[in-house]
Write a structure and sequence with these properties.
Length: 326
């Protein structure tokens, strides 16, 4: 094993419910295995400006149930430059940090990969993002909780949609991915999901209307993945107003409510397993890998694969949604 005495841990990018459970697991598992642990605040920004304190087991007490991240998070422009990374490396040397565990999404792991290669540092990533868009892992930390939040919000909107017999476009997050929209639609019994993955293949709105998406009901709920391609829920509603003015349309954008709240049991367990696995990975001499979960088994995915490969949506789910919305 590389000579690791002290492990630094940070969260970066958009926060996700379950990040705290992961911080707790990394910290406790590291201490259990004899490492010193340092908590780095505000992601890579804090690595540059040295916002770092030693973490002991009680620094992570009573946080497993909390949403957000006690380490705070940021998207650091400076870390994207070689100069910024050089300062970050100096801080690591000053603080005696020999290895890093980075909890975050696509952008955060891209930064981790470049940094690890430039300075030959053992870095392990943990996928923490509500978007579920990292290749090589069935789910990411925060995705399940966000799905539940979406489901509960849609359940409420359905009451008013049914009462007024309206068509609702509900926009959900996901950056460029439709996982939240598609599975959120299935979980909430929505009529359809409009997702960026099939944007170029088919006019999803036209298909919806032509298929008579209100066959048996006078109200409809369509989940729209945020996307520049589709113009999101607003873009869809504008089109309906112009092209199908017979419908009474409303738009709800769920926004950052999807990122908050206490993590679900699933996310707490996933984060706990992944956090412990990150320390196992370092002890296994693994570096530049993301911890993933596939068929309930922990796996190591090289950063390059996790970031570069596009995670495909399960097209069977589109069909299921179509069938169930008759
Ligand atoms: O990656 C998580 C995410 O919530 C995306 O779904 C969304 O596009 C983005 O972050 C929003 O970022 P911000 O909070 O910086 O506006």
């Amino acid at each position: 094993m590389a000579d690791i005495k002290c492990v630094g841990i940070l969260t970066s990018g958009g926060d996700a419910p379950g990040m705290n459970a992961a911080i707790r697991a990394v910290t406790r598992s590291a201490i259990y295995n004899g490492f010193q642990v340092k908590g780095i605040y505000r992601g890579y920004k804090g690595l540059i400006s040295n916002e770092i304190i030693e973490f002991r087991t009680n620094n992570v007490s009573n946080i497993i149930q909390q949403g957000g991240t006690i380490l705070k998070t940021a998207r650091s422009q400076e870390f994207m430059t070689p100069e910024g990374r050089q300062i970050a490396h100096k801080t690591m040397l000053q603080e005696g940090i020999d290895a890093l565990v980075v909890i975050g999404g696509d952008g955060s792991l891209t930064g981790a990969r470049i940094f690890a290669q430039e300075y030959d540092i053992p870095v392990v990533g943990i996928p923490g993002t509500i978007d579920n868009d990292l290749f090589g892992t069935d789910t990411t930390i925060g995705y399940d909780t966000a799905l539940n939040t979406i489901m509960q919000a849609v359940d409420k909107i359905r009451d008013t949609a049914t009462s007024h017999e309206r068509l609702f476009f509900i926009e959900v997050m996901g950056r460029d991915a439709g996982f939240l929209a598609l599975n959120g639609a299935i979980a909430s019994g929505s009529e359809a999901a409009i997702i960026p993955e099939i944007f170029t293949e088919v006019d999803q709105l036209e298909e919806l209307i032509n298929n008579g998406f209100r066959k048996s009901k006078n109200s409809s709920i369509v989940l729209v993945a945020e996307s520049e391609l589709t113009g999101g829920a607003m873009g869809m509603a504008e089109r309906v107003k112009k092209e199908y003015p017979q419908y009474d349309v409303r738009v709800t954008i769920l926004g950052h409510i999807q990122r908050g709240g206490s993590p679900s049991a699933y996310d707490r367990i996933l984060a706990s397993r992944m956090g412990a696995a990150a320390i196992d990975a370092l002890m296994d001499d693994q570096r530049n890998v993301m911890i993933g979960i596939q068929n309930d088994q922990i796996v190591y995915i090289p950063f390059v694969k996790a970031i570069k490969n596009h995670k495909p949506i399960n097209r069977d789910l589109l069909n299921t949604l179509r069938i169930l919305s008759i």
